[in-house]
């Protein structure tokens, strides 16, 4: 891996086959800012560094520590590589809170993630039970009339 932060950003971006524009869009940073960072003309703020690491799918330490090596996982180059139902979900603005929650969940430990899935299952079961209860209550009310 290269020595400078910018060189590491460029190397990982290029290994993904992304343009600077693609990385800028994924990270929410302007393309000229990406260019300046990659050429070591600018040093990113901690917030921008985290955004870049998240967009590239690597831990922040990979970008900051020249001694660290990291074998990155394959990432899809485009939302259009996803199955059609997922494309519609990802491209729908109303899905953003769910995608953000999924991203936060992906950063939890296995134990925390398992607990959260169990909690979600319990809440879903509760909702299902309440829906059935209301159905039977309405049915019972109509039978009494």
Can you tell me about this structure?
This protein is an all-alpha fold and 145 residues long. The protein is built from eight helices and no strands. Helix 2 packs across helix 3 and helix 2 packs across helix 4. The longest helix has 35 residues. The chain starts with a helix and ends with a helix. The model has no long low-confidence stretch (mean pLDDT 84).
Q: Sketch the major β-sheet.
A: none
Helix content: 55-70%
Any idea what the shape is? elongated
Number of strands: 0
Supply the number of helical segments.
Answer: 8
Note the gap between the termini: 77 Å
Structural class: mainly alpha
Beta-strand percentage?
under 5%
Radius of gyration: 22 Å
- The low-confidence parts are none
Q: Report the order of strands and helices.
A: HHHHHHHH
Mean pLDDT: 84
In terms of topology, how is this protein built?
Elements: H1 5-15, H2 20-27, H3 31-38, H4 46-56, H5 60-64, H6 84-91, H7 96-106, H8 110-144
Helix pairs in contact: 2-3, 2-4
Give a brief outline of the structure.
This protein is an all-alpha fold and about 140 residues long.
Label this structure with key terms.
single chain, about 140 residues, 8 helices
């Amino acid at each position: 891996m290269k020595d400078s932060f910018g060189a590491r950003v460029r190397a990982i971006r290029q290994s993904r086959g992304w343009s600077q524009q693609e990385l800028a869009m994924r990270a929410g940073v302007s393309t000229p800012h990406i260019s300046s960072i990659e050429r070591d003309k600018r040093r990113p703020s901690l917030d921008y560094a985290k955004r870049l690491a998240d967009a590239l799918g690597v831990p922040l330490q990979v970008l900051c520590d020249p001694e660290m090596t990291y074998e990155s996982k394959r990432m899809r180059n485009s939302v259009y590589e996803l199955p059609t139902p997922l494309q519609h979900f990802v491209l729908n603005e109303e899905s953003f809170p769910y995608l953000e929650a999924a991203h936060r969940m992906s950063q939890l430990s296995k134990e925390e993630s398992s607990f959260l899935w169990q909690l979600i299952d319990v809440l879903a079961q509760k909702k299902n039970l309440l829906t059935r209860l209301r159905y039977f209550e309405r049915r019972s009310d109509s039978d009494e009339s």
